[in-house]
Amino acid sequence: MKPLRRRGLMYVMSSPSGAGKTTITRALLKNNEDLTISISTTTRKRRAGEVHGQDYYFATPDEFRDLVDNGEMLEHAKVFDNYYGTPRAPVEEALANGKDVIFDIDWQGTQQLAELAREDLVTVFILPPARAELEKRLRARSKDTLESETEIRGRMAKASDEMSHYSEYDYVIINNNVDEAIKKAQLILDAERLKRHRAMGLSDFVRGLKGGL
Predict the structure, then answer these.
(1) Cα–Cα 20 to 30 A to 17, which of 1, 121, 165, 173?
(2) Domains of the chain by range and CATH?
(3) Against a cut of 0.90, is the pTM above it?
(4) What would the 3-class secondary structure string for 90-159 be?
């Protein structure tokens, strides 16, 4: 009897900046060979060291609008005066081949994905342990990104709005300890992979079992 195949899932990780989402995402990618990350398309300028097609797909505003108008984006949103979106084709190919795709998107993008493919979607919101800790992390990171005080305050204000959407997600992880948060994110992924509706050909498999008794 042929082994069952599994349809891949879309694993969304959302959080305010500084809550630890990127660290958790990188750990999951390292520990799961059948997990790939969705590469977003963006209109923001390329930063030093970023590679087109590896970090982002970089596009002009006109090119981005054409992609949206042609139905080539699963979701898109405006963030800090720039547009970000998820190309449709590579995600659909991965899911059909049984690979899981992890997304680093905000609540707006998550809502759009839920409208298109709720059965394929698993959503996780990462919260910081405290507001003061979130600000501390943002200030520490600003030393590398050279963000101004105004930009830091803007991120803190945006964080309040983003965190108000936590209840729209399937799971919430409070990132008190990053190692524990990674373990919880992995447990969610493992459990969701076992959901009955993701097993392809399960009905035929069971019929085969019954016929052999």
Answers:
(1) 121
(2) 7-199 (3.40.50.300)
(3) no
(4) HHHHHHHCCCEEEEECCHHHHHHHHHHHHHHEEEEEEECCCHHHHHHHHHHHHHHHCCCHHHHHHHHHHH
